[in-house]
Design a protein that fits this description.
PLP-dependent aminotransferase family protein (chains A, B), transferase (chains A, B), pyridoxal phosphate (chains A, B), homodimer, 14% strand, transaminase activity (chains A, B), Arc Repressor Mutant, subunit A, eight-stranded mixed sheet, aminotransferase (chains A, B), Aspartate Aminotransferase, domain 2, alpha/beta, 470 residues, 16 helices
């Protein structure tokens, strides 16, 4: 098809990238290995191509760092050079994710890796037929869909209200805000409810440490989680500034440690928080994924005071790609966040909202959950079995009674960065505990996504990698 | 059905609202009129009910301000009281929308008002059959959908890349980020690309003044727009801090003034911005809605340097409820914002993305646009005719050649707050120019949503209201 020699194809590709402004001045080009893979050539061919473009004055190598764009075809011929986008990003409000998290986000889309990382249901748990059926129903219900009022579709809010009643939570539809996932709910609370100088109390470890939810203006205090959940006594050794503190907690099938607080502990926590007027943001996204027995009631059920903002999601139970979750709380909070939402992105996809509404209203969601619980249990038990078989000498874990993960602690100190990378080299992706601010030698393993065969291969690879890094 | 006397029904309803924590302590309850409407009773019945709940110690009236919750059933019996959510919201990072904008957002969902406000296509322009057809196609294509990588569906990005080629823009799919509407793109740029202390240059008037996109850390400078678009000479009388300034511009069918910059002006602007290294954020969401002739090429087409970030959306051309738009720019910017997106809401609804992809790939989008252009033109001409007939003595306007609005300037100074409210009293919703920071007596009228009959009724009502407020 293409008669140009390979090295010239690469030269033209690079020139075009620079000419079109896709690679701006100051940016690093892909590595020689990446380019070689892209074109299916040897590295020497890539090096030849790079030398040509260098000789044109467009590229420059920096020792030990890589090849950078230093000019484009326009800047070579004029005094003009574009804004330095790389510099602009350096001092922005939103920090970058830590390198490991960026890498995980990228690698989680790779089909050739065994995904022991993904916090989502695998292809065999995706409700294909239910979704196709619901899509059919939705396509007959569609009316014109405009900008909403920020609260979300009323019928969906009614269905969520009904669904929450099964967990004992009485929330009116007008006290529910539809969000594009739990993370967005947390963001909205952070920018819309909390004061600039607030102190936020987070569990440690917590998946919240792997995303930058809280702006630099806020102080983060970490309260340890143990086998019984948040250490309440350590929380209340802290000082609280009235109306400028909040507790974020994930008390049911906690991510990543999988522990759940007992009902007794929940009661004590709520009572103390009421005493100190410390608002609770309860993240309860794993509740519907219990396997052995229903978990203790949400803290929100015990709350008669409007003390608790309650967050849920369909990302873990149906599919993340829906981008549908909810936030429930006092009307004053919901009204305020509705306005913030209208300044953020004008609400969630109406299509996704309708689909979820249909899944709830038809009972398909409940049926799907029953199926998910059965299969998740098999998957969990299989992964537990694999761990017992292969890693019981070197690690410990407890049996999760819900959620998607097993939290594994190594008995000896291990270089976790090295282990993480070694596993990737062997095509297995794991989540090292340090991204959740855990200082032990720990990993979070998912049993929800990989196939049974992949789980076995993954654990064997992990075992081998452990030997390689010790 | 319900045998309780009406006033007792209201008492129980209020008690429950307070008991469940939906009305938190410190919050204002709905007005007597609102409650009376809700229950279909006289105000005297509401007053009786309120007096009872007051006597229980739960409510208190504040002179001239309304009735407030001062206790709940728990706080009456204990020392505990909930966090003051109303106070918390007062010092948050995200300011509230101005009152008029909040009111418009709320009133735009009311079916009983004539909507001369809405910036979206009306029910007769909603592509029902195309969307139903595309839904059918999508339901057969659905695979499991997980957390993406933040960029959005590759097939959709390819389709957008092809679509942009028709406007002369050459952008690779890897330089496109899918967003949940243009507003989100602006937010992502603001928190992810701009420096904390940046100065942002905005058109004045601009719809951007009606949403709080920019954090308090940034300085906003307003550059006037006239019949030829942004006054370039006034922009370049400013001083620019290298790598800490950016220009946000909506050069095609500008919202709200509807003007478009000429190609010549675009060239001058880009050249000068290159000279000063001032990045351009080009908001081009109305481009596909031209009526008389294609508008001048996007500034992005002239950009060979990676100077311009380019924003588009399907909210104005298909439906806002999809929540699908895009951002195109240099790879470094797109990569950075992908990471910010993964810390914000993990991407846009996969369903919405698939649906838009299908509409684009099937050619249904192009066909739909042809239809939209024809009908919009009729609607625009009709509204122009109504204005000429009824308001030519008191106001002036120019004929828009694209977009959804006519920008009307009154010849005499008018109390715009009063006019806005008077129109609402008469069931007509208009957007007063002051929400866009216009200091003239101006309104933005939409011809895209209301029916022909409603437009006539709306203009007659506007005329009458003008007499009432003079």
């Amino acid at each position: 098809m293409n008669k140009k020699p390979r090295y010239l194809q690469i030269v033209h590709w690079m020139r075009e990238k620079i000419e079109q402004g896709e690679w701006v001045i100051g940016s690093k080009i892909p590595t020689q290995r990446e380019i070689a893979e892209k074109f299916g050539v040897n590295r020497s061919t890539v090096i030849t191509a790079i030398e040509i473009v260098k000789s044109e004055g467009l590229l420059e190598g920096k020792t030990g760092s890589g090849i950078y764009v230093i000019h484009n075809q326009w800047s070579l011929n004029s005094e003009m050079s574009p804004p330095d986008w790389n510099d602009l990003t350096k001092w922005s409000l939103q920090p970058s994710s830590v390198h490991t998290v960026q890498l995980i986000n990228e690698l989680e889309t790779r089909k050739d890796l065994i995904q022991l990382s993904k916090g989502e249901l695998g292809p065999d748990l995706f409700p294909h037929s239910e979704i196709a059926k619901a899509m059919g129903a939705v396509s007959t219900q569609i009316q014109d869909f405009g900008y909403g009022d920020g609260l979300g579709d009323l019928e969906l809010r009614k269905e969520i209200s009904r669904h929450l009643q099964k967990s004992g939570i009485k929330i009116k539809p007008e006290c529910i805000l539809i969000v594009s996932g739990a993370l967005q709910a947390l963001k909205l609370i952070t920018v819309g409810i909390l004061k600039r100088g607030s102190t936020v109390f987070l569990e440690n470890p917590s998946y919240l440490h792997s995303v930058n939810v809280f702006p630099a203006e806020m102080t983060i205090k970490r309260i340890p989680v143990d086998g019984n959940g948040l250490r309440i006594e350590e929380l209340f050794q802290q000082t609280f500034t009235r109306n400028a503190s909040a507790l974020f907690i994930n008390p049911t099938f906690h991510n990543p440690t999988t522990t759940s607080m007992s009902l007794e502990q929940r009661k004590i926590l709520l009572e103390k928080c009421q005493h100190y007027k410390l608002p609770i943001i309860e993240d309860d996204i794993f509740r519907d994924l219990w396997m052995d027995a229903r978990p203790p009631a949400p803290i929100k059920v015990l709350d008669k005071n409007g003390q608790v903002l309650y967050i849920g999601s369909f990302s873990k139970t149906i599919a993340p790609g829906l981008r549908i979750g909810w936030l429930a709380g006092p009307e004053a909070v919901i009204k305020r966040l509705r306005d913030v939402r209208m300044q953020t992105d004008y609400g969630s996809s109406y299509l996704s909202q309708l689909l979820v509404k249909e899944l709830l209203a038809s009972g398909m969601y409940e049926n799907h959950l029953k199926n998910v619980r059965t299969i998740l249990k098999e998957r969990r038990d299989y992964l537990l079995q694999l761990l017992t078989l292969h890693l019981s000498d070197v690690a410990s874990w407890s049996k999760p009674s819900g959620g998607l993960f097993i939290w594994v602690l190594f008995k000896k100190k291990i270089n976790m960065q090295k282990l993480f990378k070694q596993c990737i080299n062997e095509n297995v992706l794991i989540n090292p505990g340090y991204i959740y601010h855990d200082h032990q030698s720990s990993i979070r393993l998912s049993y929800s996504y990989a196939s049974f065969e992949e789980m076995e291969m993954g654990i064997l690879t992990l075992k081998k990698s452990l030997l390689d890094v010790v």
